[in-house]
Batch of 2 targets.
Target 1
Amino acid sequence: MTTPLELQSLAVEIAREAGELAAHRRREGVNIAATKSALADIVTEADREVEELVRRRLHEARPGDGFLGEESGGADSETGLTWVVDPIDGTVNYAYGIPAYAVSIAAVQGSADPATWQALAGAVFNPAIDELFVAAHGEGARLVSSIEGERALRVAAEAPAAGALVGTGFGYDPATHAAALDQLATVMPIARDLRRIGAASLDLTAVAAGRLDAYYERGLHPWDMAAGSLIVAEAGGRFAWIPGHPSGRAMTIAATPALFPRLSEILSA
Ligand code: LIP
């Protein structure tokens, strides 16, 4: 039986290789886009190439596992374990050259359904600033950073007296933005300020690292949050994935234990 720490090591090894490929393609892409095709084409190509690398490495290491990726879809598991992968989370940041994008790789027990899976291991790697966030079920969460060094991750114990620093996001569909802004207005009374990082996996790891007090977003896909949600939980944070009815757009909530009840109450109103 493979342990969560062994799965974490595999996720880290592949996330680092895939992240370096993504960063390399971004550097190349800036030159190609300036001379040939739209940068959007470069980004799409990089997304697909990075996911192909991740999928290939996982198949080489664990051929019977299942897979769900943003670009190449899913494959059923023969082992009971499924890998949930976002090859480049924060695609728009990546296209604009904003150094806030990440390879997100998670191993879950069961199928790729956030309502039923047990996350076992996760790695979120931002190659632009060389920051790696990892967690294994029951083993805690850690940050390995060229900026901060290496440390265990633990969310803040108390709700900040000045109000919460809250992250959120807005989906690609402009038709959802008005409702998202209306909902944000109900959250701001408990917030000191808002941060919009632009990559759900980095929003979630920011909560785990104490860089945000809370994060919420409606409409995320399983691959956006699979690794980050485990990292939040192993850092002592609280997390919820609430299926969206009838919109089908689930609500993701992550926060310190002190803030989670109040934020959940506001978002469910
Ligand atoms: C993105 C998320 C972000 C959300 C965007 C998009 P992608 O994922 O990380 O939080 O606001 O709409 O879903 O598309 O960059 O992998």
Target 2
Amino acid sequence: MLGAIEAGGTKFVCGLGNEHGEIIERESFSTTTPDETMGQVVRFFENKKVEAIGIGSFGPVDLNKKSPTYGYVTTTPKPHWNQYPILQELQKHIHVPIGFDTDVNAAALGEAQWGAAKGLDSCVYVTIGTGIGAGAIVEGKLLHGLLHPEMGHIPVKRHPEDKYAGNCPYHQDCLEGVAAGPAIEKRWSQKGHNLQQNDQVWEFEAYYLAQAVTHLIYILSPKKIILGGGVMKQKQLFPLIHDQVTQMLNGYVQMDELVSGIDRYIVSPGLGDNAGLSGALLLAKHELLQL
Ligand code: ADP
Ligand code: ZN
């Protein structure tokens, strides 16, 4: 039996499952203070016989195993969680191997193993929710780099009719600042799920997300791009993004996937809302097998 934790800024989901990605049991806790939330996580795993645990965490996180702050949530603006040793806290109480990566890298791993990118050696998983983040598999391996990619904060060209200033505390009108769920809510003074009928909302949104997707195609050349998170529950965004990406590429990258198959190239998560948790099971397995 393997353990999985999807550690989110809104909620933590703990799960038990097997190496085939089947989730047998799960429980969610809202993300409050580290003491309270991690206490609930520890209690969930305490009497369960898991061989290893995988954590896919909100970030930024320190993923450098040689660093003294490996396993920390680092510069998050989220109250109480700045410089918090999430991995160490769990290790204090649960004595099994524990794998640690970003929530979006875990989701990318799950999707590449069992979901929309099954059988492919590269993909990008982008979540568009409370924030925007992305994880990538490149040549069969998770992409880490200097720290880990922060693709949600790329600069974007403004839609000429969009008057909203943006709300990223670091960059104001980066992608996350203009296109994450809270930006939609502030721009239109209403929650995204009430705005389904307003075409301009989704035209702006697709314009920004298509720029991000186009950059990803140029920089990483992934074999599949998976768009998940709460905002992507608005399924009408997909054809709008397909059209915008097609216009932005303007025929430059001549691959069938992008020319005739773009609706199968930019897709919803195959594992639905389970991508992150299933991926965390794989992080556990990799840690156990020292992969
Ligand atoms: P988190 O990012 O916290 O893990 P979600 O991926 O569910 O959680 O994202 C939450 C954000 O997505 C909120 O800003 C919410 O308003 C927005 N959202 C959730 N459901 C919808 C929907 N059906 N349509 C548009 N926006 C949505
Ligand atoms: Zn930003």
